[in-house]
Amino acid sequence: MVSIKLGAVSMDAPEDKLYFVSTDNRAIIINDDFLAINYIPENSINLIVTSPPYNVDIDYEGFRDDIPYDKYLEFTEKWLRKAYELLKPDGRMCLNLPIDKSKGRDGEGFQSVYADIVSIAKKVGFKYFSTIIWNEGNISRRTAWGSFASASAPYVIAPVEAIVLFYKKSWKRLSKGKSDITPDEFKEWTLGVWAFQGENPKKVGHPAPFPLELPRRCIKLFSYVGDIVLDPFVGSGTTVIAAYLLNRTGIGIDISRKYCETAKNRLIKEAKVNFNKILQY
Ligand SMILES: C[S@@+](CC[C@H](N)C(=O)[O-])C[C@H]1O[C@@H](n2cnc3c(N)ncnc32)[C@H](O)[C@@H]1O
Q: pLDDT (tens digit, 9 = 90+) per residue, 36-59?
């Protein structure tokens, strides 16, 4: 076991799960199944920023992204319960989701993913705050028209995603802290339509990354300097990079060893993180 201080509490984590820990303990990458983790202390996390698997048949390393929709919703409920436990009473969650899904297993292609996940989150105990619409400006991904120029069976696709804001018990922070958001950023980002480009998967070495700008805005707007930020599906490490660069502590979990390695390399290159050699595998 390795003991890592997280604010007022300590996390005693099995050494073989800690893929990467910076020397200052502010960037932590864990290679594990989020559902199986029992060593992150409950009520210890200030902010969760994440984009879970969307179950749209993405070719991930190490798990299937095309399970039946009811099973996907069961998985969603399990991970949301876990996330809820880990948040502090005034903890918040920024959940990046598609509005809907129009591909996947035969016969269940069209699903209201956003609506279904929001209702599961509320059932689990999360309180809903509001939703930011992220305009990715990416219409090049469009490949299907259904019935082109005909009312027979046209497809309608919105090139936007949602960032849903939830909190555990109190939206207002229960203690004071230092904010680092500028007045201009605050004015722009509190208008709930964000427009910036998506990330290029080839550039970061992951099939479905979000751009650094997404966690950067969420972290500056919704957390204090020094807070603990968690991404239970960290992929290429984007949330932990943003947290580290903004002087927070970032904890990222991914079930895939390959993506943990990608995250580690990005942290070293893009955030100039120093690391503890003992924890390298
Ligand atoms: C949409 S991607 C996240 C991408 C990330 N936001 C980024 O910028 O690279 C979802 C990630 O969840 C991981 N994953 C899937 N099931 C998991 C589980 N049970 N526990 C932890 N990670 C899991 C996948 O390996 C994948 O990297």
A: 999 999 999 999 999 999 887 788
- Which residue's CA is the nearest one to ligand 1's atom 17? 255
Phi, psi for 28 (deg, rounded to 5): -130, 125
In the chain the domains, ranked by start, together with CATH numbers, are: 2-144+153-279 (3.40.50.150)
Pocket test for ligand 1, best of 233, 265, 270 (most atoms within 8 A of CB): 233
pLDDT in tens, 207-249: 999 999 999 999 999 999 999 999 999 999 999 999 999 999 9
pLDDT score of 143 more than 80: no
**Best mutation site among 28, 234, 251, 257 for ligand 1 pocket (most ligand atoms within 8 Å of CB):** 234
Which residue carries 């805005």 as its tokens? 217
Ligand 1 atom showing the smallest separation from residue 199 Cα: 8
